[in-house]
Design goal:
With 262 residues, the chain is an alpha+beta fold. It contains eight helices and 14 strands. Helix 3 links the parallel strand 7 and strand 8.
Length: 262
């Protein structure tokens, strides 16, 4: 069986219900993981998605901000959600497929604008979130698992449009990259996107501030799909649907895809 999964920071699932439906209709992933839903779970517009065959939902929601959801046309069971760093935010949810594979969907805090926890509480919250996540994977090593989401860090030099220019910009600072790497190492996670596309500039986010975002192409790869070693070898077909960034009233993120032969 081939499982295709997509992850997308949608920046309001109700505002962009039509874009989600378009993605489901045109790309037909088996599972779609959304971040920044900005909606209580009961207000997620599932009726439109059910009509397209996506009848299963596991989510954690909040009014107006944060929020993560896993929408699936395959049966899924709620596998929990953690409040890392005790922020009181809906930033993690997990679902288990009938095959036994667990999907973790994360929305890591953005971290504000100043990369200094003494001057910027939000940056400290981001680092604390990643530290607790690292510790969780240290004492509870995952298996048969896929981790996706807006991790709000572009770790590699070719994950940003200009490595040197962004070294002091939140999302690409050395301390953030180091923290994310400790999370990856703690769970022995494999970066599936870069396993499939090992070289070259690769982005999933372009700022709203750039009117000519496509021409300027000052992007960052903030959205990720990882897998545990026992299933990472079954992954293939990774891609980023850049065209979705140009849809009408788009999210500033593009969907990221990967398939697994499980």
């Amino acid at each position: 069986m081939t499982l295709t999964i997509a992850t997308w920071n949608i920046n309001s699932v109700r505002l962009r219900e039509g874009l989600v439906a378009r993605l489901l209709r045109e790309e037909a992933p088996d599972v779609l993981c959304l971040q920044e839903c900005k909606s209580p779970v009961e207000n997620i517009p599932m009726q439109a998605f059910r009509e397209l065959g996506y009848t299963h939902l596991v989510a954690r929601g909040q009014k107006g901000y944060n929020g993560v959801a896993i929408i699936s046309r395959l049966p899924i069971m709620d596998a929990g959600g953690e409040d890392f760093a005790q922020l009181g935010h809906a930033r993690h949810v997990a679902a288990r497929l009938e095959s036994g594979v667990t999907i973790h969907n994360f929305y890591v805090p953005a971290g504000g604008d100043i990369p200094d926890r003494e001057q910027n509480e939000k940056f400290g919250q981001k680092l604390d979130f990643l530290t607790e996540l690292r510790d969780r994977f240290h004492w509870q090593r995952p298996d048969r698992a896929i981790l996706v989401g807006d991790l709000n860090i572009a770790p590699r030099e070719d994950d940003v449009w200009n490595h040197k220019a962004l070294l002091k910009i939140v999302s690409h600072t050395p301390i953030e990259v180091e923290h994310l790497e400790t999370v990856r190492e703690a769970g022995a996670w494999v970066d599936v996107t870069r396993q499939d596309i090992p070289e070259g500039q690769l982005y999933s986010w372009w700022s709203y501030r750039a009117a000519e975002w496509d021409a300027a192409d000052k992007g960052r790869r903030l959205d990720h799909i990882w897998a545990t070693p026992d299933i990472a070898g079954a992954a293939h077909g990774s891609r980023i649907l850049r065209a979705a960034r140009g849809w009408e009233q788009p999210s500033d993120h593009a969907p990221v895809f990967a398939s697994f032969d499980l």
